[in-house]
TrEMBL record:
It comes from the Bacteria. CDD domains: PBP1_sugar_binding. Residues 9-140 form the Periplasmic binding protein domain. This is Periplasmic binding protein domain-containing protein. Transmembrane segments: none annotated. It holds the Pfam family Peripla_BP_4. It comes from OCS116 cluster bacterium. The lineage of its organism: Bacteria, Pseudomonadati, Pseudomonadota, Alphaproteobacteria, OCS116 cluster.
């Protein structure tokens, strides 16, 4: 397992290129950009399949995507806020960065729900929190309906204190189990020529 240090497109691409020289198959979380797509295409040319995990990338050349239907995740979060907010007002959305395909889809779903079903709310410009809790806390106010992702000590504490309305949890056990099966198949049977997707959402698990 290799961790990216600065999560730049160049670093992701270089890591995929390096790993492809020593591995039979790759699963990665990376941003969606030309450099990463090129690295995945080169790995495929060497016979090494790449699976995108949690946030999709290189859709035309990767072997498959394993993660949530991020469009529906965004719409679900919007539904929760629209139906639990104590009053009509401004709605904010925090994203980790503009290059993450999963984040972009969640924002699209989030905004589309409010536009279609709760236009009385004002969805303001998204805020990039760079995946740091400190900046998120500083930008947040009080007396809000808050929907967050993943169960962790902070979100559990937030729910216990009534600060967090709901938590959307990624079914990592199921995702990883099916990912390993597909990765093994790509090596044994070379069944990765056609890109595919596997979606996991709360409604179908």
């Amino acid at each position: 397992m290799v961790w990216a240090e600065v999560t730049s497109p160049k670093e992701f691409a270089e890591l995929i290129e390096r790993i492809a020289k020593t591995c039979d198959v790759i699963a990665a979380v990376a941003t969606d950009c030309l450099q990463v797509s090129t690295a995945v295409a080169e790995a495929k040319a060497r016979g090494v399949a790449t699976f995108s995990l949690l946030s999709d990338f290189a859709q035309d050349v990767r072997a498959g995507y394993f993660g949530a239907n991020n469009l529906k995740v965004g719409r679900s979060a919007a539904w929760m806020i629209a139906n639990t907010a104590k009053r009509v007002g401004k709605v904010g959305l925090f994203v980790g960065g503009s290059r993450w395909h999963g984040h972009a889809l969640r924002e699209t779903g989030f905004r589309s729900y409010f536009r279609e079903h709760a236009p009385q709310f004002q969805v303001i410009e998204s805020v990039t929190n760079l995946e740091t809790r400190k900046l998120t806390y500083e930008a947040a106010g009080e007396d809000m309906s808050v929907v967050v992702n993943e169960i962790m000590p902070e979100t559990i504490s937030g729910m216990a204190e009534g600060l967090v309305t709901a938590v959307q949890v990624t079914p990592l056990d199921d995702i990883c189990r099916n990912l390993i099966v597909s990765m093994s198949g790509s090596v044994i049977e070379k069944t990765f020529e056609k890109p595919g997707q596997v979606f996991y959402i709360s409604e179908n698990i």
